[in-house]
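Figure-free illustration: sequence to structure, shown twice.
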Amino acid sequence: MKAFLILEDGTVFEGTSIGSTREVISEIVFNTSMTGYLEVLTDPSYAGQAVTMTYPLIGNYGITEDMESKRSWVDGYIVRELSRTNSNFRSKGSIQDFLKEQDVPGIAGIDTRALTKLLREKGTMNGMITTDENYDLDVVLKKLKDYTVGDVVSKVTCDDVTVLKGSGKKVALLDFGAKNNIAKSLQERGCQVTIYPAHTKAETILSTNPDGIMLSNGPGDPKTCTDIIEEIKKLYASSVPIFAICLGHQLMALANGADTHKMKYGHRGGNHPVKDLQTGRVYISSQNHGYVVDTDTLDPSIAVPAFVNVNDGTNEGLKYTGKNIFTVQFHPEACPGPQDSGYLFDRFIDMMGGAQ
């Protein structure tokens, strides 16, 4: 069946329908990872976005148990070629069947290199994936212009409090769209992890006397999370050590008077170099974000840059002055990798008083 990807600038790509045949409007982004397509599909940070994979062949090792959440969150999936067979001793099925089961519409057979170059040149755009060959371009462009991602944090967060057993430090994890590997990375270090819904009051969390607080990754524009930012202000005012990743990093900055802005096309992939400004060492990191903290708006008496992106100089982390708080824009829990910066979880354990 034919499928069409229509961008808000009027560009149309024609390909073949994969997954669900339902029509979808979404923000169109690209990811440069060569592996880990299942982790991309199940990363809650992609809610409200259709993902273009720049690697040309996707699905060759099938679907394994490496899901980062209970379901797929991407609005759509765009690939050059979808593997017709899968070969892996851990495979539980094909990516084609997975996309259908998860009701994810997609398109294959388009020039993803041309699409990526277009997004790099013009910036992230809204787009529609449709199988309707009789679409009215003027009507579609009006819909694309009106589309906004909206409050996707409320969509992806957990419904109830969950406790993951551990014999070490007690960590409260605020789930803004947390990847499973964040809790797993803490558990591997002996932590008891209590996962809270995104809109949990600070008083509820602090009343349990946690040894540390983790603010997770998540989707969307951080400035739309106004009620969450107010609760983070209260968490900041406490003496509890805090470690924040991605969206959590941005929300902590906003809670302390800094500003954020949308990037032209964001950072999404597993090969982004970041420099630790304290040691001068460069790490290769996994990233997935379209917004960034404006360091010019930082009050140095509150926070100072701790990491910087080597490619474009944007902020990749903050150290909060006089507080046991540090935050990073990238993903130290990266799965399938790289795991160069996994030591940051050990730093968090040390902030909480060290392993027991």
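We now fold a second protein in the same way, so the two outputs can be compared directly.
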Amino acid sequence: MKSVFLVISLYLFQFSSLAAVILQYHHVSNTTPKSTSITPAQFEVHLKYLQEHSFNVVPLSQIIDKIKNQQALKDKTVAITFDDAYIDVLTHAKPLLDQFNYPYTIYVNPAIIDRNEERKKSHYLSWLQLKSLADEEVIIANHGFEHDSMTRITDDLTQAEWLNKQTTLLLKAENIIKEKTGQSWHYFAYPYGEYSPAVQAWAKKNNFIAFSQQSGAVGLHTDLTSVPRFPASMPYDKISGLRDKLNSLPFNIQLQDEQAETIFEHKKTSNISFNIETDDFYKSGLNCYISGLGKQKIEWQGDNSFTINFSGDLPTGRVRCNCTAASISKPGRYYWYSKPWFILKEGGQWYHL
């Protein structure tokens, strides 16, 4: 059994620093698959909650620029994003967003939009519709030329060959978006949220800010090659759960070398050890959960290190370890950190998407 050792340095911010949350949606509809949908009625509940509780809803670019320039941003800042550019973003989400005057971002796959237009279907936004939204200052960003996972190497290519191929496709997509909408932000949302340290290095090399799908607040030390976003569609759409996410605070996480790996074969990892600098939370109040396994026992070694010995084998598929701790100085708010893994089947085969 192979162990994963994660060394994590946590430096808690002064509260004048950036504390932001990015929400991720797909469909806003009553008729689309529940796993990627929120109903229009519940989406309106989200927007009302943001307004009634004085959240600062801003364009995604404002958050990213503040991180890049290491400038403090108003607390309780939120950005709203949609993946895949479904038509219901226009028909159902936009009227509500306009009502609240909230900015948002749409991540698009140019090849899928082109095919949708050729077949005269209306599942996705058209380029004309996207251009109209862009003219209204909606951010149109890159979700890949197709919707291919960045980690699933095909055609018997080496990793280097695969990433070279993806560079061509990523830049092609960015050029099409610029041509069709007039925008080129160099923002890239990983399809399916799947990435690896090699893919992160690739994104940085190509000068893209990359967005993932693991949970967590955003801080001044957020890695701009894996910016966390909170999924807010079903089953995570209830206000009772969303409230804590919207009020969450960022941990500063530094992962190096093998500690940053995200892909493992089933039964090939059994524990994680963290080095942590405690400051604004109590050790007894730190809780860690792993998807499919539930709450994990935390074994502290002194004040600055703890280990999680997994209560079972990490399940095949997309797995998250979420660690939260109540803030001492900000009662009712939680620090939130999420580590994603993509666990292959025994023998190294990928699970189904």
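Summary for the second example: The helical segments are 40-52, 60-69, 88-100, 110-118, 127-135, 159-181, 197-205, 239-246.
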